[in-house]
Amino acid sequence: MLKIIRDFLPQSEALELSNKIYDTPEHWWSYAIKHNEDLSYLKSSLRDYHARGRVEKELEERFQSGKFSYKFRRSTAHVKGCSCYECTFTVDYLQNILKNTVLKETGWKNCKISENFVSAYQSGDFLSIHTDETRGVAYILNLTSGWKPEYGGMLNVLQADGTFKAIFPEFNSLILMETGQEGGTPHFVSEVSKYAPFHRVAFSGWYDEVPHD
User: Fold this and answer.
1) What's the angle, vertex CA 35, arms to CA 29 and CA 38, rounded to 5?
2) Distance from C-alpha of 142 to C-alpha of 204, rounded to nearest angstrom
3) DSSP 3-state assignment of 32?
4) I need a labelling partner for 7 at 20 to 30 A (CA). Which of 63, 98, 144, 208 fits?
5) Can you tell me the mean pLDDT for 97-117?
6) Can you say how many angstroms the Cα of residue 54 is from the centroid of all Cα atoms in its chain?
7) What is the distance between the alpha carbons of residues 156 and 150, in angstroms, rounded to a whole number?
8) Rounded CA gap, 5 and 167, in Å?
């Protein structure tokens, strides 16, 4: 299942949410880098700054060897009772409206959020081809106003005929993709151009089906 829903949020709410993401302070972000079998989350400390060179070299080697690799900024854990825009959106939309949308599109009786975060791709960031075969339904709510196809950051999904469908991250569009069926759906996010004038941002995550007794 691959579904694209345009204008998922009221336009004013989508713009407000996008602005909050772009106004998020530096210390809130982690740079997620899949450069070996483990995963590094680098912050803006001096120690992490000096670790970037080694990590980037390992990332390049991993990517060229065809192993699953990526790098992009993302939100991580929040404190209990956090009332930031991400946590508020999770309660108001992810656990309610978006969850009901997933149930409608899949025919599931019930589901739960297995992971959710805010992603931000800048120049040089990418997500190499993989399947997410242990996941259920992936969602991506695109919140970048003014993005152009030539900036990169396109979600590419393998089709039945062996070709890849490139999906433009249109502002306020919701992408739902079933990833766990039949070994998973191969997909990747193309590298963001060094000429892209700003980050490509989105709410991202997965829903898993809850077994029905």
Assistant:
1) 85
2) 9
3) strand
4) 208
5) 95
6) 25
7) 14
8) 12
CA proximity to 109, closest of 97, 118, 100, 96:
100
pLDDT in tens, 178-190: 887 666 789 999 9
- Kindly indicate the confidence band of residue 161, based on its pLDDT and cuts at 50, 70 and 90: very high
DSSP lists the bridge partners of residue 155 as 167, 189
Position 110 scores a pLDDT of: 95
Phi, psi of 210 (to 5 degrees): -100, 120
Tokens coding 90: 């999770």
**Residues 102-110, mean pLDDT to the nearest whole number:** 94
Residues in the chain, overall count: 213
Q: Strand, coil or helix: what is 160?
A: coil
Structural Rg of the chain based on CA atoms: 17
Q: Please give the torsion angle defined by the CA atoms of residues 159, 163, 166 and 167, in that order, rounded to the nearest 10 degrees.
A: -10
Q: Are 132 and 181 in contact (CB under 8 A)?
A: no
CB–CB of 189/155 below 8 Å? yes
Type of residue at 128: S
Rounded CA-CA distance 126/190 in Å is 6
pTM above 0.85, yes or no: yes
